Amino acid sequence: MDGTVIVADDDRTIRTVLTQALTRAGCKVRSTSNIATLWRWVEEGEGDVVISDVMMPDGNGLDLLPQIHKKRPNLPVIIISAQNTVMTAIKASEHGAYDYLPKPFDLKELLSKVSRALSQSNMPPRPASTVMPTGQSLPLVGSSPAMQDVYRIVARVLNTDLNVMITGESGTGKNLLAKTLHDLGNRGAAPMVTISTASTTPDRITQVLNDADQTPKDATIYLDEIGEMSVETQLGLLDAMQSPAVRDKNLRFISSTQTPLAHLINEGMFREDLFYRLSVMPISLPPLRDRMDDISELTSHFLQMASTEGLPLKTISNNALELMRIAFWSGNVRELQNFVHRIAVLCPENEITAQFVKDSLKQMPKIKSEAVSIGGDKLSSAIESHLKRYFDIHGNQLPPPGLYNRILREVELPLIALTLSATRGNQIKTAELLGINRNTLRKKIQDLDIQVTRTKKMM
Fold this sequence. Notes:
Layout: E1 4-8, H1 12-24, E2 28-32, H2 35-43, E3 49-53, E4 55-56, E5 59-60, H3 61-71, E6 77-81, H4 86-94, E7 99-102, H5 107-119, H6 145-157, E8 164-167, H7 174-183, E9 192-196, H8 202-210, E10 220-224, H9 231-242, H10 244-247, E11 252-257, H11 261-266, H12 272-278, E12 281-284, H13 295-308, E13 315-316, H14 318-325, H15 332-346, E14 351-352, H16 354-362, H17 370-374, H18 379-393, H19 403-422, H20 427-434, H21 438-447
Parallel strand pairs: 1-2, 1-3, 3-6, 6-7, 8-11, 8-12, 9-10, 10-11, 13-14
Antiparallel strand pairs: 4-5
């Protein structure tokens, strides 16, 4: 790489690491801990690429983006942030950021983005949008790597007219994502018309799409569980979409399915031409078992939601959250939400305890916490039980590839996190207690995204 990179971050460790890595890659680097210096360098024409944090002592990197683009339209700005929410990703995209990476980030991925930005720094910039809504509560909750992938796609597709296909198991939040894409996008002022595809007919589809009152120009059509639509209705939908009257309405279609459509296409149960028309931009929502780090954040969110709906405002202990984090949520986020609302009502204390969660999990159908099921059995028995339920959920189909690493992660994460907690964050003692060397421990802490309370994360 050849060029000058400006690094703006108030974390000295991150500035040091990025400076060393970028210098080794052949770049010149100027680093600062504040917005004022970043803006001065931009005004003076310094830098070919900017890497900026969001929250800094004297300002917000995202808020500076419009000024940077006005002054230096062709200067790519890569936003990095520990505020790993969907709104951060959306705002970065809306304000014209070249790219967005949540902390902790992968250094190789960031270097790759810098390299691409340097090669494209003289190209016309991607225009920033001004439709970013303000004062909105977070429509999607979670900061896990799996959800960050979703946020980045949402940010890119939000203010386009592309048709979107949302896939995911039951209870993962497909309807919520569809509503988010509509409400926060450039069609938010127009209505979103929801069609339950399992019960609709070809005549009904044609009627809805042609009705000017129900489906006006620029509306969004949400096709809920498109995989359950009959072949006859699929043909009716395709014909209606291709009619001049419907085309003139400039409708956007968002579809959802929990059934893999590729299997239905192969079996002749879903039209391939309709699939490609609807699935211009696919978004896959991860199951809760692939984003277990989000359970604490989701639980707090649902407790707050419960209080706004007239239920008692409760807190929950860390030990109780740990039990919930290692429970098996076959119903995904929807099941977790129902459980949180239930314990908010039934718990007699202001703080929900681990014992109360343990007893409540025992009463839940299809859910058993690993901590509850272990009892006097060996850990291997609990893992075997967990895996059996996991395979049973997929029925006659095999689970997604990568099972070995997913199971190792589920075992390693609580093992290392709890050991770090027991040693009060002392990594030397933790490595000794685990019987691994310190370099291995550091890598696992980074790979598993474990928060170490005694020291700050490097990235």
